[in-house]
Amino acid sequence: MGTGGKRLAEAFEDVSRMPALAEARRRVLSACASDSTSTAELADMVESDAALAIVVMRAANNGGGPPARTDGVIEAIEMLEPAGVRATVSPVDTYDLLEQPDSASQRHDRFRRHGVAVRHAAERIATIARLPHQDQIAVAALLHDIGRLVLVYLYGSEHGPDAAGYSPDERARRERRELGIDHAVVGAVLIRRWDFPDEIASAVERHHAADAEGSAGAVRLADLIVHHCYGDPVPGESIRSTAAGLGIDAEQLRTLIFEFPHLGRIRRPMAEPCPLSARELDALRGLAEGKVYKQIAQELELSVSTVRTHLHNVYRKIGAVDRAQAVLLARDRGWI
Prior knowledge:
By secondary structure, this protein is mainly alpha-helical. The protein has helices at about 5-15, 20-30, 40-45, 50-60, 75-90, 105-130, 135-140, 145-155, 170-180, 185-195, 200-205, 215-230, 235-245, 250-260, 280-290, 295-300, 305-320, 325-330, and strands spanning about 20, 95. It is about 65% helix and about 0% strand.
């Protein structure tokens, strides 16, 4: 391995071991010790910090033999169970801005806060656009700028989360011009090294593409809206065109921008957590899109009988008598 390759490998290892906010880890450990914490509540706590989401996803994907390719944090928690989450999260290093107000802690927290903000916005966008695989979109949004931390290790802080003065797309173009690569591509490479689903890596890789759609489009639009609300320079046409590619009209877009500071309150209502697994939700979203069992099975790469079992479990868990009622109940409760 050449010097450049060795430096890149070292950067990947360094970012893979990034610290978590101390308070975030404390809350996750406390939730794991409580019998009353639902999977959805625990997932929200894990997804409050990219470092925690990364170690939980990696443990679920690689901890028990061949890669499991979990779709998202909820499915990873279901695989690990609270005891496994606790064992995975406990060794993670932490930082505390009150006790360690240094530049590294500030950089990690800026990355964490931006990722969480984009995750909240992307989840709302995915719901409005009725996109499948919303747990994957949440992880992609949380990690969309992970490549910037790699660039800091390789080239210095001017390429990290603290850099300002450019629109998101301008920063990516500047990186390609000056470095020959941008943070989106670097982040996707790292995510693939972690053996996360390729859909997550692809969404991260393409979130600065003008023609991004689907999961990548949701992450792109969320990132643009968050930067816009922060007062960063973001062309309005970029926001409008990305929204249009997702089927989001002008009225819905204005509502998204208006609601942005409160978007974190919309997901997974604590009074009524979602009782469905990630696969059950995927099958239910297929029904909501008017698809038959065979179509859903093909898209999820499952057998028809497995899809039928998932949907029967859905009806039983939420007390629905048929597909129409199941879709109505799930939408009313904000699960799809």
